[in-house]
Specification:
Beta-Lactamase, Arc Repressor Mutant, subunit A, about 15% strand, single chain, Alpha-Beta Plaits, elongated, 11 strands, alpha+beta, 6-stranded mixed β-sheet, 3 domains, about 375 residues
């Protein structure tokens, strides 16, 4: 949520009047703006979430012997922000108090308007994402257009994670549950800028969906990712007084297959709930050969596929289709001929041609296993096997 020029000028005017910098932060300790240019957040900002006070208050840092004055800005019943001044503003200094109160009131009105407009935009964005992830788009061009509208890179792959509050106490009222969900969403949204990888947040019902862009191989990402998710669980536990769990897809997915990653993350989340766990991070468990193949880097899959099938692509589709059906029928020539509606001798001729081009023997079980895997990989790489 960006400040407009008038609000920034208001902060600067307060700073000039009291000769101290002025900061605007949200309730979770995220710096939104300040009266002077700086690229880093001050150390004391981490303390703000522990106060959760909506009235003017003060705190001091023992090491620096610095006192801070904090003034609250209410955005709605659950959400608020702070104007923080690194100085002790004397309550008895009525003139200065009036100046600050007027400035805070001016910022409050503008911020509430901004907040309302942003929440409306977020609801529309989340609804658009819900329709997309549930398969409402009809083509790859639609996927690319929609992904760009969400700020996603169409050439990147994304790990899908779904966060949900752990089961509530049976006496928890629905309204109380909704308030907790809103707090979790706000908290995670504030924390995402500190994520080790580019991340995007969406809300679908009572679930928070995070898409995290793949920027390296899995072994490099996994440790940082798990550490970040555990930090989020700790923050929610402290500030919301409830626990959350995460379900995550097995691997990252391209934009066109993001719905598969979402399904995997949802199944992983549900598996954790069924096992009566809480505050867990559950990754989707591979159940079949395609799931296991997805764990292998794409470039290695492409290399394996080309090594074992590329000569057949150059020879035309007849040979590739014949050897595929031949392997599906457990190497039965008569059944292969029947399925392809061709003569048995034609099948034999085509298989011999495959052996010649690939320089293999189809009688070798190791060879047929590699070919089966290459054909499975072809399905994963489709529609762009090369």
């Amino acid at each position: 949520m960006n400040l407009d020029d008038n609000q920034f000028e208001t902060l600067q005017k307060i700073a000039e009047r009291i000769r101290h910098p002025v900061y605007l932060c949200n309730q979770h300790g995220r710096l939104l703006c300040n009266s002077h240019i700086t690229s880093t957040s001050p150390d004391w900002i981490r303390i703000l979430p522990f106060f959760q006070s909506r009235t003017p208050h003060y705190f001091s840092i023992i090491d620096t012997k610095q006192t801070y004055s904090v003034f609250s800005i209410d955005l709605n019943a659950q959400t608020y922000e702070y104007v923080v001044i690194p100085s002790f503003i004397l309550p008895l200094d009525e003139t200065l108090q009036v100046i600050i109160e007027q400035a805070v009131h001016e910022i409050s009105i503008a911020r509430m308007r901004q907040y309302t407009a942003q929440q409306t935009a977020k609801r529309a964005r989340n609804e658009g994402f819900r329709r997309w992830i549930e398969g409402a788009s009809s083509s790859q061009q639609d996927d690319a257009h929609i992904a760009k509208s969400f700020g996603l890179n169409v050439d990147s792959s994304y790990l899908c994670m779904i966060c949900q509050l752990d089961p509530y106490h049976e006496n928890t009222h629905f309204l109380e549950q909704q308030l907790m969900i809103e707090q979790v969403v706000d908290l995670l949204d504030s924390a995402l800028p500190h994520s080790p990888f580019p991340s995007f947040l969406f809300v679908k019902g009572d679930m928070v969906i995070v898409l995290m862009e793949e920027t390296g191989n899995w072994s490099e990402m996994s440790e940082k990712l798990l550490s970040f998710l555990k930090q989020m669980q700790i923050l929610v536990s402290i500030q919301v007084n409830h626990t959350i769990s995460f379900g995550a897809s097995l691997t990252s997915c391209r934009i066109t297959h993001l719905s598969e990653g979402y399904s995997e993350a949802l199944e992983a989340l549900q598996a954790g709930h069924l096992s009566a766990q809480s505050e867990y991070i559950q990754f989707y468990q591979a159940k079949d050969v395609p799931d296991l193949l997805k764990l292998i880097p794409r470039k290695d899959l492409v290399t394996f596929h080309q090594m074992h099938l590329h000569p057949l692509y150059e020879a035309g589709q007849n040979l590739l289709h014949t050897i595929s059906v031949y392997l599906e029928t457990h190497c039965h020539i008569s059944e292969t001929a029947k399925r392809l509606s061709i003569h048995r001798n034609t099948v034999i001729y085509r298989l011999e041609k495959c052996e010649e081009l690939l320089r293999i023997s189809l009688k070798d079980p190791e060879v047929t296993l590699r070919l089966r895997l290459a054909l499975r990989i072809q399905m994963i790489l489709s529609p762009h096997p090369d």
